[in-house]
Structures are given as C-alpha cells and as structure tokens.
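#onboarding

Welcome to the new folks! Below is a worked example of what a typical request in this channel looks like: someone posts a single protein sequence, and someone else replies with the predicted structure as tokens. Don't worry about understanding the tokens yet, we'll cover that in week two.

Example request:
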Amino acid sequence: MWSKALALGSLLSVSACILSAQTGQASLNGLVKDPTGAVIPGVVVSAVNQATNVPRSTVSNNEGIYSLPGLLPGTYRLNATFAGFRTLNREGVELRVGDRISVDLVMEVGQQAEAVSVTAETPLLRIDDAQTGLVIDNRRIQELPQYNRNPLAFALLTPNVNGTQEQAGHDTDLRINGGRTAQAEYFVDGVPVTTGYAHDIPPSVPSMEAIGEFKVLTNGLSAEYGRLSGGAITVVTRSGGNQFHGSAYEFLRNDKLNANDWS
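Example response:
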C-alpha cells in the first residue's frame, strides 16, 4: 500500500516538474491552409532556431492545426512541407519569454521541390489570453547600469511595479500590480525559486551574463502560476549558439570612491 502511494507521489512530482518547466518557454500554433482557405491535415511543420539551427517538428491534425510548445525564446524559421504543395518557408518569427504566438500558414499548389519564402513580422498583439506584462530583453540587461549587478532590479521598469527594493521578498516593499510584498513569485527556467515562509529569493539567481531575458507578469495570470498574488517574474537563462561569444567586466566597489559626508 505504501509503495503504491509512494509511486503515485513520485509520478505527480515528475508531472508537476514537467508542467512547471513550460513556464517561461514560448509556443507556436496556427492553421495550415491552401489558397482557397481549406485546411490541410498531415503537413510537416518545423520551427528552426536560427541561433542554434536546432529544429522542432510536428504534423498538422485533421483540422489543419499545428502546435509547437516548449520553444526557447529566440528567432525562428518556419518550414511547411506536404505532397502536391510548394515548400513554405517563413523567416523571422521572433519568440520572447512566455509568448504564445499564432501564425497561420498558406501553402501554394505546386512541386514540393519549389519553395515559397515569406518574410513577415510576428503579430505583437496577444489574443490567446488576457495576460499582460513587460519583457526585459538581453540588451537592456547588458547595457543598462545597475549598481549591484542584480538583473532582477530591472523589474522596476515595468508599469504597475513599484517600491524601493530591487526585488520582492518578505521584508521588502516591491509590489507587482498592487499585490502583497511577499507574494510575488520568481521562476528560473520554469522552476520556482522563492523559499520558505519568508518567500525570499535565494542567492542562486543567475548573473547578468547568464540571463537571456525575463518577463514581469502583472495581470491575467493563468492557472499555471499558482500560490501568488500580484504578479510573477519568469527568467530564462541564456543558451548556446553557433558562434563563439563571451563578455568581460570589472566591478570595483570601494569606500575610497564614495562621496564625502559633510554632516
């Protein structure tokens, strides 16, 4: 009896980890249609990360719907192939942390060896749910000055976030959308990192160089964000790419450089 209960508990824990890992990742979905508007089932749709050339593939269902969940933030190239239709390539589909983007694909009749390339901007209006917030991208993290090199301090750039502290915690005053100070949640690659009764942030938060981007969610949170009020901050760490890159910095903090205290 105990072994069954233990096995069930382990299964639920693994399932919770899998679900929580989706937090902060992006997803693509949409309809595959022909020029007349009729849906096309069985189309192989691939999303290729242009920074790593890593592909993710799926097949459209009987309603012509394709879905690609669990994608890392980045710029993608969409490919759609099906017998009797030209190969469709759509460039420059940009996904940011937590995005749920709907991109419909219209395929033209012709030889599969022929290709149609489409370059279009990804729609910025979020229509799948009522979630609102602001993405703090990597350029802001790397180029904006921050005295303590704490990337989470840039959450204060978000509308409806206020306080004098750099991040939320039990003894701080940072509030998201008017919520309680100790009830904001932080996620790093889908894993909650707040700890204990005090609901504080551990010192294991990634450095400025290790964070790709993060999003401050201020309203319309879905059921996957539980046990919090006000809002959440979901962080995605930086991944590798096809090109060598690195950074260097010098951080000098010395009381000899402080201004004189004339009081």
